[in-house]
Every structure is written in structure tokens, then in C-alpha cells.
Amino acid sequence: MTDASFDVTPRRPAFTERVELRLSGVDPGARVELSARMPDRSGVLESSATFEADGDGVVDLAEHAPVDDAYDGADAMGLFRTLSMTTERDLAAPDEAVTSLVVDVTARVDGEPVAETTVERVLAPEGVTASVVDDRGVVGRFLEPAGDGPHPGVLVLAGGGGDPPWKVGPLLASEGYAVLALSYFGPEVDGRPDALDGIRIEYFERALDWLSNRSSVRAAPFGVVGWSRGANAGLLLAAQNAEIGAVVAYAPSSVVFQGIPDGWGSVGTPWTRGGVDVPFVPYSFGKRFVPGALGRFVKRDELELRPIYERSIEQADDDVVADARIPVERVAGPVLLVSGTDDALWPSSRFCDELDARLDAHDHAYAHEHHSTDGAGHVVPVPYDATRTDVGDIVPGLSLAGGGSVDANARAARSAWPLALAYLDRGLDP
């Protein structure tokens, strides 16, 4: 047994804050395995990487790259961002507020533990409150910052997976925003459609009204932060409501596509307004899609949908595509578009270029920007969160490819988050 020990700075960081992790007291040149374990709301995440101690018997994650290719290069947060789910189960009740996550870090030499430490990563500081919302048809989760307010309001919209990204709410609340993470479809959401099919834009407007009626929430303008299909919903909502003063759209499309079925069924438009279907581009699967998907299912390979969306655009009539374009130029506030060039679900970088060009062509009076990360995919998390390259299962046993790499997706998360905060601040500053 050595006299190895960890030095951690800070030991109780904000979740998006960089942590300096340094191990000392091992033999020079020793092979040291560092492992991390973090229980999350939905299960237990773990990661590991092997390092070679330097001549002083030190492993410093900020200076030393792993020797087993666990991730690229020296990275102080490498162990944290490469965490992945190993045991999936609900570890918190739906109405339970999770304000921090504890990471246990262990150093092993020749398989034997030589040092241990913990890092408590704070999602929401003291004073932030969270509550489940099921009120007048609005379903979701509401998070309020510390203090009496009123605070600027933000609507958070998940993508095709249906569940709002739960860490975003407390992180935005810790920045001073009152956040409604809205549930707008899914079999577990009473009164909402089971699938992304025919969802009324009026439901999102009702959510804005709900925010407006909170004494702790400042009057409009409000912000919207959305991912994928939720980004599309946010752009459509903002284009039709002057109450929206800023939009942050992660991996949106530039046109409305056909909805997403619950399983293998068929659906129509994802959105309606006033009882009328919002025009959409229908899918063009091609003859090889079903056999290809079955082959992927048998081999347990990820299914890439990007060719479907590209083919659908190419084969649709010009007037169909024109009618389905999202009128982003009508948004009365700044617009941040976030994408990765290796998006395997749909070509979000191309779509963001089209949206940005449309804003330029209409001399949009507010700040707008397309922030693209080379090599990143569809899934861009918050900084230093567990990073993945898949989107989730389309059916049990068949996962959708998101694209990118763990390293590129992590770079995208780190660079996009401060921009997102800056755009919200710019659009919601009274």
C-alpha cells in the first residue's frame, strides 16, 4: 500500500465547472487506473481511464493523457464527460428535487485500491426550488431561482425522446432563470398525445400563459431552449408569439418534417394550429429502409436516419418544401442555432445554415448566429455531462445513431453553453 492521495479543486463545484483532479504518492511509472462512479436520476454511470504516473509519482488529469485511449489527450474533465450508464433504473421519484450529484473516484494499481475521493457536483445552489406541474392542462417541471424575483422565464423543450433534459432546468435556475421544462407528448403524460403527432401549438402558448401568471416570473419576453424537434417547436412558437424574446435551438431542422410514431405506425404532421395541420415534408424511406433497419436490429447496430431526411427533402416537391420551411425571420429576438457537422440523425448543420441564411436574407433586426462544432453529432449535452453518440432506442433493441464522437460532442457542449446563456441574457434583459 502506498501513501497515495487525491487533491481535488474545487471539491464542491458547480456542475458545469472544471475540476482539477490530481493523484500523488504512487510509484513513478506505475500504471494507475482511475475510475469514476456517479448515481444519476435514471441509474448509475461509470467511467475509467488508465494513466502512467510521471517521475514524481503524480497523475494530473489536466496534464496527463490516458494510455488506454479512454479519451483524447489530457483533459481535466475526461473522467466526468465519459461517464456512461451501466445500471439503468429510477433512483429518484418524479417529484424529488436532485440538487447535486456525487462522483466517487478511485485509484487502483495492479487492481488494488490505493486512494479514493469524492466530488459533489452542484446542479442547483441552495434556494433553488423545484416542483411538478400538472395545472390547467400544463404538464412539466418548474424550477425557480433563489430570491423573491420576479425572474426572467424560460421554456425548455425536449426533442423526439419526449422527456425534458432534467439537468438543464436546475442549471438555468442557478443562473437566475425561472424554468418550465414542459412535457408535451408521451404515454406517461396524461392528456397529451402518445407520439409526436398533431401536437397543438396552442399547448405551448398555454405554457407561456402559465408562466405569465406566476408572481415569481417576470413579464414577457420569455426565452425558449429546445433540442431537435423541441428546437423546431420553439422556433415555430417564437415565430408566432412576440412574447418570445430569445431562442436557443440545438440541432433543429429548417423545415417541419412528418411526425414520429410510437413504434412502427404512421403519423402525419407533428404540429397543428387552430385545428389546421402545419405543413410538413413527408418521409421518403425508399425500398431498402425496412430490410436495412431489420438488419441493424439483428446485428444490434445503430440505425442512422440522416439519409431518410436528406432523401425526403430531395424527393419532395418544391412547393411542399417551401410551405414547410420554418419562418425563423419572424422571431422577435436573438436566435442561437447549435449544430454538429457529423449529425447522424438529420443534417442539422445544413439546416442551421439555411435558417441563418434566411435570417440574413430578411435583415433580421436581432443578433443571430450558427454555432457549429466540427465532428460533433446530434446529442449536445450540458458541459461536462455524460456524453453519448446515440439518441436512444426507436424500439427496444434498435438504437438511433446520433453521430459524432464523445470528444467532439463534449467540445460542442462546452462551447455552446456559454453562448446559450449569453443569448438568453441578451434577449431577456429588460
From TrEMBL:
InterPro entries the record matches: AB_hydrolase_fold, Acyl-CoA_thioEstase_long-chain, BAAT_C, Thio_Ohase/aa_AcTrfase, Thio_Ohase/BAAT_N
Residue span, BAAT/Acyl-CoA thioester hydrolase C-terminal domain: 199-428
A Pfam short name: Bile_Hydr_Trans
Domain Acyl-CoA thioester hydrolase/bile acid-CoA amino acid N-acetyltransferase: 17-133
Active site feature: S228 (charge relay system), D343 (charge relay system), H378 (charge relay system)
PANTHER family, alphabetized: ACYL-COENZYME A THIOESTERASE 1-LIKE, ACYL-COENZYME A THIOESTERASE-RELATED
Family: Belongs to the C/M/P thioester hydrolase family.
Protein name, entry field: Acyl-CoA thioesterase/bile acid-CoA:amino acid N-acyltransferase family protein
